[in-house]
Each structure stands twice: as structure tokens, then as C-alpha cells.
Amino acid sequence: MTGKRYYIGLGVSGHDPAFSIVNESGEVLFAEATERFLQDKRALGILPDHMAHLAGPLADCCADATHFTVATSWLNPKPGDDAAAPSDHPPLEPFDPVTTRWLRHQQRNALLSVGVNLSMLTGIDAIESHGFDHHLCHAAFASASAPFSDGHCLVLDGEGEVGSMSAFVLENNRLRRHKRSWGPGSLGSYYAWLTLQCGFHWLKGEEWKVMGLAAFGTPQEDVVNELQRLLSIEGGKIHTAAPNVWRQVSSFLKPFRPAPGQPIESAADLAASGQEAFARWTCQLIAHLGYGPGSNLILTGGCALNSSLNGCLKQEFDFDRLHIPCAPADDGNAVGAALLAWRADHPAAPDPKPISSPYLGSRCDPLHIDKLNQWSGLSRSDLRAAGHGPVVDLLAQGKVIGVMRGRAEFGPRSLGNRSILASPQSPGMKDRINQRIKGREAYRPFAPVLRQEDVANWFENPQESPYMSFALRWRADRVDQVPAVVHENQTGRLQTVTPESNAWLHGLISAFGEATGVAVLLNTSFNIMGKPIVHSVEDALGVLFTTGLDAIVLEDHLIMKS
């Protein structure tokens, strides 16, 4: 074979599609969720190999390609047209037959369309296609970004080929499946059901809202006990109760659900109780699997986005290291599939460098920035000479600033390159951003971002959290200094940065700390509720013009409203 081969990974679950590009050395060149390009939250039912989305990264990364391998994140797509399809789940309302068949139909369409758009864009017909086990894709991406080569990897999500849980052993950067849970028992499906019980919907990705609401409630032991009838952990596997038990528990919860006309906050105790049950099951499972003191654990799958749980696990089990990747849900599987395809072709090759950065997505289009500077008439300044000073001055004055610079973050969380930043010192800042900019519920929290070297000064049980994966408890003597990023239960879902991980953001925090005495910033995603994180310069300007945002940083340009 002559010429260069590139590996195109596709996440094909029917929701949260994504694609990635890996080169012949096993290096991840690009990874991005389809929702960003389309500005369609979760991109439900949309194929990941969208031609217009593929075109730019292919031109940038694969200009010398002569061969492609396309890898998908399911080894065997599930049937999409039989009446029995929903039987993989207990009778949970989110997984109604129509929705389930629709998602699986789209998953099969994705497999059928593999390579067609790629060939049309590049003129290359030398294209191979492979599918890989769904949970193995989760584990491959997560372990490729882990800061260790030996440990355990636990995948917890809604479903895989045969179940919702897989446990792997990681030895010298090689994965070996240790155990899997067969059948319909699923922590991910349970949380989707809980989301519905609390008045939200999983299809919109509103599990986040349950986690945020739980901090305002108190777990009720009778509710927790009733919920724990739904699932059981036996022999390191997850088992589900009979359908009639689910119906009984749903009926029991009726007084705890928000009635028509009631504020959603009335479900806070239910959310807290549901979160508590989820945490107990997860801890039971980890204990059954034998993971304990001194071991390294990778946690991935959609359940690994539960930062409230994650913040307790390292202390609960005394792990040496606990790693959660930047994209533990199904978007991350696009990278996992591509890496598995690369390894299949290079079984004896040295391991590629670990994925040390989440900044794997698109850049701002410089032509669009030039047009903005030339024709918009907006107030703007060049930050290349001024450095952080103008941005720090605005933040210290209480201004709220959107940031769009460098490559976009891969995964669901803004980590400084597609973020809205503000001072955490004002008690009213949280309400201001929720109401005037994000347009979301008042109880929704915001994340603190701080330098890694300062974590112990601000949090109890400090640990690294480069991808906002852990909610930790604030030190009591610090809470009053940063009220805008302290959640109701005195925790914060923090992001930690180093000069190596994000030099610009680390420098900005340092400069803000010198100016105000508080080296912490409020960080939230650069979007409005119901929309994905901004993708283009025009997306960023749309948020600036239609919300209470004060300014945006586009690469090295500061754009101000009048």
C-alpha cells in the first residue's frame, strides 16, 4: 500500500453524533460533535458524516490522503423496525417504542452511509469500513487520555450492544474486558427516567437540570428506599426490577413530582433522592468489582458526566488516580472508534502520545473576523499588545465576556476557548447571567475556573479537574469571596488549568487575581439555553447582540457593545 491512510471515526448512536480524524501515527488531529456545526442541540437523528461539516477538517488535515478507514462506534447496530426493540429497557416512558425505533433506524442509516460523503468530497474510493463494540469505543478514548497506563476502566451508560456496563483492565495501555452486565439493567436509563419524573426530558439532554436541582433538595430516606427497588447490584452486574415494580415506584413518587402550575423547584427533594440512589448503586458496583485503595480508575460513558457523584468517588474509595475524559458520552466514541481502527492496522506500533488536550475542534474563520473588523462598525481593540489588561479591567467592573479563541473544546463543557467568563465576586452575577444571557432557570449553577496550583486554597479534598468533571466542597472560609460560583450545597464543579493546558486562560486568571485578590473566574458555556456552544463568528455575534453579554474576545480582538 502506498500513500497516506487516515482514520475517520464516527459516533453513530442516533444522538450526539460526532466525527474525528486520526493519522497514521495514531495522533488525533480533529474531533467535534455535529451539533456544533449545525447549531442543533444533540443533533438527534442526524448522521455524523455531514458533508459541509466534514469538508473543512478534511481539507486541513487530510490533503495528502490516498486511503481512508471509516470506523463506527457500534459493532452491531440494534434492530430498528421490530416491535420488540424497546424490550431492552424496562417500561420507562422516555424509551417509548416510536422514539426507540427512530433512534435505531438512524443508527443503521449512519452505517449504510459510511464513506459515501467522504468519497464525494475527496474523490478517493479506497475506503474501508469497520464497526467496533460500543463500550470498547468508550474505553479506548478514555484510556487514550488517561495520565496512567495501568488501572481499571468502568463504562456506565444507557446501553451498549448487550448491556449498560462494561469493566476493563488496562495493562500497559492495552484494554482487556473483565466483566460486562447483560440485559436491561441500566444506571443511564434509570437517570433518564428520573429526569422525566422531575419534570424534564432526556431527549433534550436535561439530566444536567436534575443534578443542579438536587442541590436544593434533601434526600428523603423513604423515597431513596423506594427508588432502590428499581435496580440491584449482584455479582458486579446491574439487574432491573419487573415492569410492575417500576409502575409501583412511579405511582409512589407522584406527590413528589411538580404538579401543573407548580415551580420546578418543588421537585428538589425528588431530584436529591434520585441522585442519592444513583450514587449508592454506583458505589455498590465499584465495590463489587473490587476497585479500591491505591488503584487507578477511569470512569466513562454518559453516567461519568455526573459531577456530583464524581466528586465523592476518589475520597470514598481512596483511589490513587480517578480519570474522566473530556467527552465521556457518545460523542467521545467517534475518537475511540478511530483509535481502535488505527490499532487494528498497527498492532505492534508504539503507543501514540496520550490525548493531553481537549482542544480538538474547529477554529474561528479568520476571513470572518477580518470582515467583522472592516465592516461591522463595532468598538474593537487589538489584544496582542495590550495582553490581558483590557479583559481584566472589564471583568473587574462586573462585565460579562464571551471568549472564542483557539480550537474548540471536544465534549459538552466549555473549558475557556468557547466560554462566557465573569467575576465570581458579585452575589447577583449568577441571576444576571441566568436571566439576561443564558435564559435558563434561576437554580442552575455556574462553574469556577482556577489555577491548578490554587485548588487546595479553595476546596476541601482538592484534586485536578481539567474537564469540569468533579464537584467539590468549597472551604468554608472562602465561600463569601466567590458567591456567584457556590452552589446551594456549598460545592462547585470546578475546572483547573495549568500553563500547559491553557496558557491564555491561566494568565487571565493570574492577572484577575492580581487586580482583585481573587484568582477565580466564573466560567459557563458560550451559548444560550437550548442551543449548542457557538461554532462560528456569526454564532458568537448573535449571542452578543441578542443577550445581555457585554463583549466578546475573538482570537486577539476585543469586540465591545456600545
Explain what the structure shows:
The protein has helices at residues 34-38, 51-61, 97-113, 116-122, 134-144, 187-197, 207-214, 221-227, 243-252, 268-289, 307-317, 333-345, 366-375, 383-386, 389-396, 429-438, 455-458, 503-516, 537-546; strands at residues 4-11, 18-22, 28-33, 65-72, 127-131, 151-156, 165-171, 174-181, 231-234, 237-240, 296-300, 321-323, 379-382, 401-404, 418-422, 447-451, 470-473, 491-497, 520-525, 551-554, 557-560. The radius of gyration is 23 Å and the shape is globular. It is 34% helix and 20% strand. The longest helix has 22 residues, at 268-289. α6 (187-197) packs antiparallel against α10 (268-289) and α15 packs across α18. The model is unreliable at 80-89 (pLDDT under 50). Strands 13-21-20-14-15-19-16-18-17 form a 9-stranded mixed beta sheet, with helices on both faces. A 5-stranded mixed beta sheet has the order 3-2-1-4-5, sandwiched between helices. With 562 residues, the chain is α/β, with parallel strands linked by helices. It folds into 3 domains: 4-145 and 331-345, 2-Layer Sandwich (Nucleotidyltransferase, domain 5); 152-324, Nucleotidyltransferase, domain 5 (2-Layer Sandwich), CATH 3.30.420; 366-560, Carbamoyltransferase, C-terminal domain (DHBP synthase), CATH 3.90.870.
For the biggest β-sheet, the strand order reads 13-21-20-14-15-19-16-18-17
Question: What is the CA-CA span between the terminal residues?
Answer: 60 Å
| Strand residues, percent | 15-25%
CATH homologous superfamily name of the largest domain? Carbamoyltransferase, C-terminal domain
Q: What gross morphology would you assign?
A: globular
Structural class: alpha/beta
Q: Which topology of the largest domain does CATH recognise?
A: DHBP synthase
DSSP summary, beta strand count = 21
Write down the CATH class of the largest domain. Answer: Alpha Beta
Binned, the helix content reads 25-40%
Kindly report the average pLDDT value. 92
Q: What's the CATH architecture of the largest domain? A: Alpha-Beta Complex
Rg from Cα: 23 Å
Unreliable stretches (pLDDT < 50, length at least 5) are: 80-89
Integer count of domains: 3
Indicate the multimeric state: single chain
Major β-sheet profile: 9 strands, mixed
Give the number of helices.
Answer: 19
